[in-house]
Amino acid sequence: MAVTLADVAARAGVSPATVSRVLKGNYPVAEPTRQRVLRAVEELDYVLNGPASSLAAATSDLVGILVNDIADPFFGILAGAAQSAIGTSPGAGGARTEKLAVVCNTGGSPECELTYLTLLQRQRAAAVLLVGGALEDPAHQRAMTAKLRQLADGGTRVVLCGRPAPSRDDASVTVLTFDDHGGARELTAHLLALGHRRIGCVAGPEERTVARHRLAGHRAALVDAGLTEGVERMTVRGPYDRPAGYAGACELLSREPELTAIVAANDTVALGAAAAVRDRGLRIPGDVSVAGFCDLPSAVDTVPALTTVRLPLVDAGARAGRLAVGDESAPAGPLELAAELVVRDSTAPPPGG
Amino acid sequence: MAVTLADVAARAGVSPATVSRVLKGNYPVAEPTRQRVLRAVEELDYVLNGPASSLAAATSDLVGILVNDIADPFFGILAGAAQSAIGTSPGAGGARTEKLAVVCNTGGSPECELTYLTLLQRQRAAAVLLVGGALEDPAHQRAMTAKLRQLADGGTRVVLCGRPAPSRDDASVTVLTFDDHGGARELTAHLLALGHRRIGCVAGPEERTVARHRLAGHRAALVDAGLTEGVERMTVRGPYDRPAGYAGACELLSREPELTAIVAANDTVALGAAAAVRDRGLRIPGDVSVAGFCDLPSAVDTVPALTTVRLPLVDAGARAGRLAVGDESAPAGPLELAAELVVRDSTAPPPGG
DNA sequence: CTGTTAGCGCCTTCAG
DNA sequence: CTGAAGGCGCTAACAG
Question: Where in this chain does the record put each HTH lacI-type domain (chains A, B) (predicted)?
């Protein structure tokens, strides 16, 4: 059924070893021989047997990219950038490496995350890229630490993007994070500067790193301004989706009708919150300011255009991809990418401010 | 370095074959033996060597999902649904199949598409799922037909979701499509029923199946209404993104200032078009109606909420996933999923209509 | 139910 | 620069 290396060798009148060498391209072969082999490959429609190759070489060209939610553009953009950085990788020696960059959707589930890592480990993946926040459950973190170490010991490169290492001082993984704390702090500071004093927060899931960092940044700004009263009351939690934003804003508005601003866990949540605000007959930003986080492409298209914090997603993804294939050498320590406040039309001074 | 099946066998005091059998679970093994083996696996932290396994068995558990743009929620939703349908697959005999469902981002590039297929073919993938429209270039279609046949001949299941088969009567691939034509036709009919007579269209890329079908549906509705004049002039083309919608709407509005409605290639394009309309000082839907296609989750959050055509993305993805792993038997012929008109607030009768 | 025996297709020293 | 040979780790018949 399948044509093998040996068939090609026979056809080209050379040994299997020679065919292997021209295919890999990492070993000198006389040009005429090369041509002959290539032609034979053409004629026979030969395709390398990956499993056999990986078995013999004890490595594979698979690179796994794990994301929490593939339907969320945040992850899509990051993963897309990483994937194309990996695909266009020039390779170590100039020879194009045909890496198979694939993305795996964990749905944010820890079990799923571990399962995918094991599957990737089975395949002897060349690298694994974990994108986005992690669950802060001790048991899971322990399991992750162990698994990542196993992976690293097995020779697969591990890079984390947008999440901290599950355990300190683990030199085997390279880490790339966003300054979620700083970004959130700056955003809330902006609102405070406009004159807001009652700022609600629709935060993300309690047990997730990213959500915690953003909320902490928000609160740090509040503390900076001496506002410590009612903070807990003006915070609600929920998943990173639109309904959470809607429900969260409703809850906040009923708990605290005097609210003049709402910061959301991300742009999508902000959209939901904005809808809730509008449905209560309040204007944005006239009555209530609303702000997001991430600066997804759609943020500029909301009405009014969303004030948010821009995260360098494309840059981060590309960089993570390059780190994964070794095109870029790992930094000494964790690398933190800056977040930038983007003020648009959804925030303004409070009514009567 | 790596612990192998033989190590586990030695530890458990059984033969390698037995270990293999308990791991695969598809062969009777005495319970006590089973336990012993499982314990040895635990103790040794053994993980199966995928390449070796695939080589020996001549199959792998890899399932590739190819998408045109991973940052586009249309593909994200579809891919996510497929992936979870594959992951939760109960397997043929009740034993859980640990399929590794991965998504590959082609960026819409034909070369990339072919490259990924070859890579997947190398891995002897169990199935390949092609999601979204295809390029209608004869050379590429020929290449795809050949490649897909190779894949199918090699034993990998091929399913197309949202795209027609590259060549007719190819029984080796199973096809699942959306009724883009019917949906577009219904949408334009809705606009016509409201009284619109000058309807612009910001269509998708000319050479893509989906774009062609939607445009054809739109025009069919126009013909139904006896409106054939100026159709070409009221059509512009562009990629499936927001800037294309913005630019397209600007162009249409300057070509034909009397336009009272715009239908877009998809929801994202519609967002851009809406922004352009607003930026010209026109109101939606008061002066110009705007409609999208797909009904992405965000469509309901635009202001005004977008009239669009709903495509059953989750259902389609899940079904495609099940077809890919063989949980659902392939239909006799191509399966076409219905599209449903969703009327919201972005369409209304034309001014003075 | 369990052990034995051959490969699966390729890569990689080692000679020539 | 090219060929020969051994083995990567696992599975799949066969026996028993």
Answer: 3-57
Q: Which residue has the tokens 């512009």?
A: B236
Mapped onto helix, strand or coil, the DSSP state of residue A202 is strand
Question: How many domains are contained in chain A?
Answer: 3
D7: residue with closest CA to C1': A56
N-term to C-term CA, chain B? 78
Find which nucleotide's C1' atom is closest to A24's CA: C11
pTM value surpassing 0.90: yes
The DSSP 8-state label assigned to residue B131 in this structure reads: E
Residue B204 lies in a domain: yes
Residues 6+ positions from B118 with CB-CB distance below 8 Å: A47, B147
Q: Are residues B328 and B232 in the same domain?
A: no
Is residue A40 one of the residues assigned to a domain? Answer: yes
**Please, are residues B259 and B191 in contact by the beta-carbon 8 Å criterion?**
no
A124, B55: Cβ pair inside 8 Å? no
Residue A347 in any domain: the answer is no
Q: Is the CB of A49 under 7 A from strand C?
A: yes
- How does residue B343 score in pLDDT terms, banded at 50, 70 and 90? very high
The answer on B318 and B174 residing in a single domain is yes
3-state secondary structure of A329: coil
Instruction: Tell me the pLDDT tens digit for each residue of B90-132.
Output: 543 334 567 899 999 999 999 999 999 999 999 999 999 999 9
Compute CA A13 distance to the chain's CA centroid, rounded to the nearest angstrom. Answer: 49
Q: Which residues of B touch A83 (CB under 8 A)?
A: 70, 104-105
Angstrom CA distances, B74 to A72, B131, B293, B314, B323, stand at: 10, 10, 10, 10, 20
Tell me, yes or no, whether A307 and A319 share the same domain. Answer: no
Residue-range definition of the domain harbouring residue A101:
60-178+314-337
